[in-house]
Amino acid sequence: MMTDERYLKRTVLRETVASNYLHDGERSLRVYLPPGYNELLSYPVVYCQDGEDFFNFGRIATTANRIILDEGVEPFIIVGVDVNKTFRTAEYAPDGDRHEAYVRFFGEELLPFIEAKYPVRREAEHRVLAGDSLGGTISLHLALAYPELFNRVLSLSGAYFERSLEIIAAQNDLSWLELYMIVGLQETAYETTDRGVHNFVELNREAKKLLEERQAPFYYAEKEGQHQWGFWQKELPEALMYFIERQ
């Protein structure tokens, strides 16, 4: 099936945001602007961890064009936050030695940078944090760190290892936090690069149970799929449409 040419006319800008928290002092971003973008309007915004992967392997800009043009979804902006894979676990995992710095960068430097430059809405319900694997984990931890800023998390096969589960368990009331969670049924013995072999289905079931007990509203599904972008890319349209309203 050929891809409609309209989906391929994407506007993606490159940005660099300076940081006093990050080790290297800056971070590269990709910013997708929707069809008909007008800086006099205001837009919901999706913040993606692993920005390069979301754009290259997830094809999120093409997907966004399609659901905006064909499904009547309200136009929205996407901010992809790149990561140096060498330090990904250190930044994304809650027990990583760069985690706290990354969390503060995101809430205190990245968000103000985007909001000063682009017409994104400032209310938490118009911001979505999206991530795959550990990217889903850090998205949840960002919301827990800044509940006044973020209350919507899109988690693709989240890597909810022991420390993350402990942090969720320590919360009392999560009724303010809305999640979209999927995991692949073939993710029962996935070998991570630095944390051994894990059953992601069980990890997500445990996270779901803890979130449920704390009254967090969420969509949860286990689907045929492996721990890879071939699975997540197909799930992105439905996941985005869960949070971005149709006009």
TrEMBL record:
It holds the Pfam family Esterase. Gene3D superfamilies: alpha/beta hydrolase. It comes from the Bacteria. InterPro entries: AB_hydrolase_fold, Esterase-like, Mycobacterial_A85_antigen. This is Enterochelin esterase. It comes from Paenibacillus algorifonticola. The lineage of its organism: Bacteria, Bacillati, Bacillota, Bacilli, Bacillales.
